[in-house]
Amino acid sequence: MLLTLLVLLFIASIIAGLLGSLTGLGGGVVLTPILVLFLGVPIPYAVGASLISTIATSASSGSRYLKSGLANMRIAIALELATTSGAITGSFLEYVVEKEHLFNLLDIIFGIVLIFSVIPNFMRMKSEVPVYVNPDGISSKLKFNGKYFDEALKKEIEYHGVRYPFGLLGMYIAGLVSGLLGIGSGALKVLAMDLGMNLPFKISTATSSFMIGVTAATSSGVYWALGIVNPIIVGVTIPGVFLGSNLGSRYLNKLMSRRLRQLFTLVLVILGIQLILRGFGIFG
Amino acid sequence: MDLNDVIGYALRIGVIISVILIIIGLAFLSGNRDFSELVSPTSRVNTSVINPTKVPISAFSGNGLDLILLGLMVLIATPVIRVLIGIIQFAKERNILYTIITIIVFFNLMLAIFILPLFIH
């Protein structure tokens, strides 16, 4: 029984790491429901485990994405300005929300927002690389440019991120939601870069994977103090997500962007449904 | 070595050290009679009952639980060190704009990890 639990936990974390590194979502989306529904872990411990393991996904896939040129260091750090500020605000707000018992309402609202956010994804489903837009003032000053060799298309792609203020706003909300709801918020990061900043989808997901560890580390202090980190559960998941994300980050560049976008859309819908269910108190 | 290489290695080394500490910790714990109690999903052993300053010392004396916790601390420190290396590198390149941005990110991280938890009881 004990061994079965540990083995299942380990397998679930490999899958979480794999999907987390490919979609830029971190992996909590996969890990939380498996932990809660199949392994009987209470929601707070599941949330704690997925938050901490996101750091492992981010660190192991992030180093590979930097090397392959898929994660853009300058864009990441310029946007982390907003995610960390958002995460701090979110942690503070958590108190107010906890007092007023608004968590369920927030879960439901955010779940609905996520499900609707797949619509622009459908419109761009077939696009492999975005149409180049001339850099605007701030983004050229911040040098949001780069190029990478797309192994699926077999050609070099040059890109330039635009609309930095839009990106900042999206990232601030992503950090806020992460601190408030305890979800990795990679979904909003990818959307802000993909829709707002006109970056290629692979650059968006890889840069989100790279960034997400810093956001998770920001929230981890509060989570640690709240006591929702169970060392054994987290301990078993971390080697698993490490293996999974190593595997996932090896294949990102080989896949077509539209395939990644389909995967991302699917996981987003699952996350949305999951949050709505949590909001109605159905699961857990 | 350029910025990306240094940061890539730092992330990789950090996460590998963390995984090794956690695996050793789990191996030590598995021989423990209370292991099944600790593994239980509803176990009451969590980070709110742990004094972080005592973890490193008792980890090195071979306490399995503290080895795992030390692994988690190394993991949380990894992105922080990544940001710190970023500050140094941008400063070396005399890229003032990015040095300032990275310092603010670092400040936010420190505030969130060390100051915010003090307000939680």
Helix/strand order of chain A: HHHHHHHEEHHHHH
Helix content range of chain A: over 70%
Q: How many helices of chain B does DSSP assign?
A: 5
Which residues of chain B form runs of ≥5 with pLDDT under 50? none
Q: If interface size is counted as residues with C-beta under 8 Å from the partner's C-beta, which chains form the largest one?
A: A-B, 61 and 58 residues
Mean pLDDT of chain B, rounded to whole units? 87
- Helical stretch tally of chain A: 12
Pfam family, one (chain A): TauE
Protein name (chain A): Probable membrane transporter protein
Family (chain A): Belongs to the 4-toluene sulfonate uptake permease (TSUP) (TC 2.A.102) family.
Subcellular location (chain A): Cell membrane
Overview of the structural elements:
The complex is a heterodimer of chains A (284) and B (121). Chain A is mostly helical. Chain A is 74% helix and 4% strand. In chain A, helix 1 (2-23) runs antiparallel to helix 2, helix 2 runs antiparallel to helix 3 and helix 4 (73-100) packs across helix 8 (164-181). Chain A starts with a helix and ends in a 5-residue tail after the last helix. The mean pLDDT of chain A is 87. Chain B is an all-alpha fold and 121 residues long. Chain B has one domain. Chain B has helices at residues 3-30, 35-39, 55-60, 64-92, 96-115. The termini of chain B are far apart. Chains A and B meet through helix 1, helix 3, helix 4, helix 10 and helix 11 of A and helix 1, helix 2, helix 4 and helix 5 of B. Chain B: Pfam families: DUF1634.
